[in-house]
């Protein structure tokens, strides 16, 4: 399960994780549940239907299949599987019942979405598991704990019956050793705070944290001593002026002052990032960092990130 | 291409509502707070409604508790006769208050305890947007009645798409007035035989899957809600109408990244289609430099020369920083220019990026200055 605040790159990280597993020769299913076709955009393919479809191959022989789960289609599939509804399902859909039930009962919606993941992890084909791993591009950190707390979500809704049993089975899988939740963050105040909050909420539910993925990290060209000076705008102007001249750059007084001021802004940001990094480290979880890719994200960049994740 | 004059906007007594909107993470909330503060210190009586502020920003406004009521922000200069109140939206509480205000105590209790009401009021996608509208409507009424405020600045909920804010009330309304709900309500209102065989079958399957209790809960909820509001859609339309009036000004906030600018375009087009008054676009956090003549390429080349000759690693490092900065400067300006050229009729204002997050009133004043520079 990969979660993160909006804008932290959780879909990208989920895709990179799937690729990194595929590069080890595994058959991987990459699932999205928010109906926004983020995976199709990322892999530059037409919108994904509610069908598992291969979108990438790992050099090691593995494959990544992608699936966009749609709660309404999942409910119809579920009804068909357990009640052999066929035509009746269509009738339900026609009066708006499917739409209604999946919209007004968010708990049910989440059970259907996680239920599809549950089904995919257990599915057998030719006597073996259909997938070695399932990677879910899960809802954002603000919603992840309620999303995974399926048992609680349906508690008010369905006290007995098949939905209840289904929710219990899903919860069992989520709490077991096969499931890990990875949280993607940037070293900024809001995403870090949400990550800390989510870790607390998830652990209170007995769910297991895999790692914290610190995304889009930039290394500073300044060492710690220089950063300490830079913050106070006390970098030696004479040395910089001399250095610039020896590199063949015409030096005005304003130029050195600007470079010193830019170094200060940079050092302030690095300081904030370090504070945020300390807050992440204090969780005592495994932390993985991914670099900022200056040219944006395309398939090649995904493979680069996948490699970083494996390292 | 015209410049957006925000001081003229906030000084105009005809401006009664300012709505900041845009994709998540572009600085909407900060912009709303900075503008509210500036308007207050220039003499307006302002209330700022924030949705989900960063902790430090909330603290800077004195928003330490979430009690759904506007509180005066201390340390706001009142020399011009203005004042600033601020509040954070509590969507469930707002929803509860609507129910309590419109139903008999007995009926309200019934609704508040209904599991479907709980789901709807706390986690339905769109409730937050709808409740932001509801709260805006309430504040507006209170302002008209009591004269407490003459300007409401409202931030919109963080969402992937800025359009959610305009669509959510309609989505909620159509859900509650949908065909299936009408059918569910039918037995509560008329003889059972009016229901078609298809619906009967649908109900029986739903009963099997969800359990009979669930459908009964839905029916009670909808029946109670229906008599309560006499049409959810109508209520939604009223709040949306408020946004069409000329005393409202929409301010779209966008960072100079492709996604955010695309959202801003969609939003501007949508506002025009809905005849909603767009004041302009704030191009926020545009990277700037005081040394634009030293290009990224020259800067990098110089850094490499210094590194090769092992001279002044410090100078090489600051040159690398400048090269990074110049790349951002050039990219940001290219994207901002492209946006302005594509939307010549929309006034824009560019706000430079700051190194630090805003966490106090001084920081907000600084943003206010930049917004109107």
TrEMBL record, chain B:
The superkingdom of the source organism is: Bacteria
One Gene Ontology term of the molecular function aspect: ATP hydrolysis activity
One Pfam family cited in the UniProt record for this chain:
ArsA_ATPase
The record ties this protein, via InterPro entries, to: ArsA/GET3_ATPase-like (IPR025723), ATPase_ArsA/GET3 (IPR016300), P-loop_NTPase (IPR027417)
Q: Tell me the ranges covered by the ArsA/GET3 Anion-transporting ATPase-like domain, including all copies.
A: 15-288
Name it: ArsA family ATPase
């Amino acid at each position: 399960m990969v979660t993160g605040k909006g804008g932290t790159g959780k879909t990208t990280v989920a895709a990179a994780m799937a690729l990194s597993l595929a590069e080890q020769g595994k058959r991987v299913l990459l699932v999205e549940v928010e109906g926004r076709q983020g995976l199709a955009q990322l892999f530059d393919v037409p919108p994904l239907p509610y069908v598992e479809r291969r979108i990438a191959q790992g050099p090691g022989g593995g494959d990544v299949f992608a699936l966009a789960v749609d709660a309404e289609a999942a409910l119809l599939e579920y009804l068909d599987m357990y009640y052999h509804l066929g035509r009746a399902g269509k009738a339900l859909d026609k009066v708006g019942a499917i739409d209604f039930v999946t919209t007004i009962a968010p708990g049910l919606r989440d059970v259907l979405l996680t239920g599809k993941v549950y089904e995919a992890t257990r599915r057998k084909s030719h006597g073996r598991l259909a997938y070695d791993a399932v990677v879910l591009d899960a809802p954002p950190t603000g919603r992840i704990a309620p999303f995974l707390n399926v048992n609680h979500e349906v508690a008010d809704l369905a006290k007995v019956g098949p939905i209840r049993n289904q929710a219990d089975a899903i919860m069992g899988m989520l709490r077991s050793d096969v499931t890990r939740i990875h949280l993607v963050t940037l070293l900024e105040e809001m995403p870090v705070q949400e990550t800390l909050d989510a870790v607390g909420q998830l652990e209170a539910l007995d769910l297991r944290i895999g790692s914290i993925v610190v995304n889009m990290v930039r290394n500073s060209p300044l060492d710690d001593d220089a950063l300490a000076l830079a913050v106070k705008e006390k970098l030696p102007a004479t040395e910089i002026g001399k250095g610039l001249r020896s590199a063949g750059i015409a030096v005005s007084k304003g130029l050195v002052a600007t470079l010193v001021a830019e170094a200060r802004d940079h050092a302030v940001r690095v300081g904030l990032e370090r504070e945020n990094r300390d807050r992440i480290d204090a969780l005592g979880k495994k932390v993985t960092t991914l670099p900022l890719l200056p040219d944006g994200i395309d398939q090649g960049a995904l493979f680069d990130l996948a490699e970083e994740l494996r390292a | 291409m015209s410049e957006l004059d925000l001081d003229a906007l906030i000084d105009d007594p005809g401006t009664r509502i300012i709505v900041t909107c845009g994709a998540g993470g572009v600085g909407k909330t900060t912009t709303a707070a900075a503008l509210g503060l500036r308007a207050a210190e220039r003499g307006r009586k302002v209330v700022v409604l924030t949705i989900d502020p960063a902790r430090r920003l909330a603290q800077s406004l004195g928003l330490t508790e979430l009690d759904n009521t506007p509180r005066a922000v201390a340390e706001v200069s009142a020399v011009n006769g203005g004042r600033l109140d601020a509040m954070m939206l509590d969507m469930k509480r707002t929803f509860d208050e609507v129910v309590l205000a419109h139903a008999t105590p007995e009926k309200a209790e019934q609704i508040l305890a209904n599991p479907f009401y709980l789901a709807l009021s706390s986690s339905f996608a769109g409730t937050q947007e709808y409740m932001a509208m509801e709260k805006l409507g309430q504040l507006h009424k209170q302002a008209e009645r009591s004269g407490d405020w003459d300007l409401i600045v409202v931030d919109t909920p963080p969402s992937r798409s800025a359009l959610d804010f305009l669509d959510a009330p309609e989505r909620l309304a159509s859900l509650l007035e949908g065909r299936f709900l009408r059918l569910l309500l039918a037995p509560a209102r008329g003889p059972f035989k009016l229901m078609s065989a298809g619906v009967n079958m649908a109900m029986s399957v739903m009963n099997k899957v969800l359990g009979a209790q669930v459908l009964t809960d839905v029916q009670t909820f909808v029946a109670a809600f229906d008599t309560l509001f006499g049409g959810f859609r109508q209520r939604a339309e009223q709040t949306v109408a408020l946004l069409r009036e000329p005393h409202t000004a929409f301010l779209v906030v966008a960072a100079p990244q492709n996604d955010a600018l695309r959202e801003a375009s969609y939003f501007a087009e949508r506002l025009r289609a809905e005849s909603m008054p767009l004041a302009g676009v704030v191009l926020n956090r545009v990277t700037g430099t005081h040394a634009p003549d030293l290009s990224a390429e020259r800067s990098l080349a110089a850094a490499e020369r210094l590194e090769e000759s092992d001279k002044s690693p410090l100078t090489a490092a600051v040159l690398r920083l400048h090269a990074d900065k110049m790349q951002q400067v050039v990219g940001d300006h290219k994207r901002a220019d492209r946006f302005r050229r594509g939307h010549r009729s929309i006034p824009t204002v560019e706000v430079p990026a700051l190194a630090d997050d805003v966490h106090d009133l001084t920081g907000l004043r600084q943003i206010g200055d930049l917004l109107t520079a």
